[in-house]
Amino acid sequence: PAETESNHAIAIPQSIPRTSSCSVGSESSSSSLGWVQYQVNDSTRRLVPSGAGSNSGRRQRGRIRALTQDQRKNAALMRVVKACSNCRRRKERCDPGIPCRSCIEHYKSDLVYHPCREKLLADLTMVFLSERTGWHPTARTLDSFLGRSDYTISGMTYTVPLSLGFGPYIHRTVHHVRPADSSALYHQHIIYDWPPRNSAGSSRTHAVFPAILTSTTSLKQDIDAHLSLLVTLHFRAFPLYCSSLRVLRDIYVLYKSLPATSSQILLQALKLLVLVHIGGDITTCATDPAVASIMTSAGLPLTDSTGAPVSPTPCFIRAQFGAVMPALAQELMRDILARLERLALSRQCAQWPVILSTFAVLLMIVESTQYHAAKIAYHARYDSGPAVAEREQERKVGRELDEQGVDALLNFYKACYGGCHARLREDWLGEEEEGVNGMGKGSAAERFVTAMRTAIRNANEGGYLKERGLMKIESSKGGFSCFFDRLLARL
């Protein structure tokens, strides 16, 4: 019986040794079991795993509250623009900025060699200085003015003085142009007041100085050298827009105080501002002997009914200048933006005053191009372009592109120097005793920051900056003055 019982015994599998309830299993343990701690949910009174429905215990994964409006906007934009290739490769969090903050913080000055979304700051050149802006004189041929071959060009050369708005003359050699019809030497021009009072231009008839430049081979280099002269020695006469925000003088004082190695970017920016703002204001001196000789030979009067000298308009020469000015402006803008990107990505506090002043001048340049784009062309009578409605639509599209470019500039500035920019607040009290970080107390850079803070405070007293920053060109009724300080106020 005992043998029979053993043959029919139930086989019990070998059990796994029981461990203490307080022990923590190691990763090498072969057991797939684990301890889950439960607790009572306060709202449902049910047992739930610890951390679910409560702030205690392990942190719950996922979003715990609704996104804000800005977060929803950024999330929607990121679904469209996607993360940049740099962030995807490094598995970093990206943002819609170009460049994004992650790229700025990771690459610093080397970002120019690893462009975020394959774009550099210099790519904005054609946004701000495209042909649609019309800030420069229109390049025209003599045939467009006088008719095909209805003129002769004298082989004799004269050296005449030409003025670019202000400062000394630039002297160039010219040939006398003799049209078959002398009445072709009178043009109707669209003139606007400066400073701008309203948005209406007036039509006036002027005598044309009948001459063209003998050569334009070195004209671009000559204009560039003359702009350097105007900025370096004669900038005090620049016809700036007078407003409650007086900062251009402080920027120029900073430029003059900088060493040559640091002032080049500001020199280029101020040259471009001069070129864009007064590029079309080309005149000649009526009392110059060579000018008077050509005028007399063409049968044009030297004085008006009151005996005052008549200043002829060098329209043919102006058109030749207009053929080279766009290329010069684009070279200057590209150089400024490339220098600015390298300098700003270093994120050195000592460089902030130069960065700030350069951004301010760039915004003034964009404001000036928008002002010129809104005006009717000087020689509108000789244009055969699109109708008024089509031109207005082109201007609107152009302004929208400008706004996008300005937003890119401002976002780049904030990403690099948002902390430093807080020093311009009216209530800023930090670092007064030891001076601004990276700059000695009483230095030109520190004086510039103080002057900027004072200018902003003075402009804010009457709400001027807030009004300008919110101003829309389409809804403005203040004439052409609406173009100025509008972008600068956003900085």
Automatic annotation (TrEMBL):
One of its GO terms (molecular function) is zinc ion binding. Coiled coil: none annotated. Signal peptide: none annotated. CDD domains: GAL4. It comes from the Eukaryota. Gene3D superfamilies: Zn(2)-C6 fungal-type DNA-binding domain. Residues 83-118 form the Zn(2)-C6 fungal-type domain. Keywords: Nucleus. This is Zn(2)-C6 fungal-type domain-containing protein.
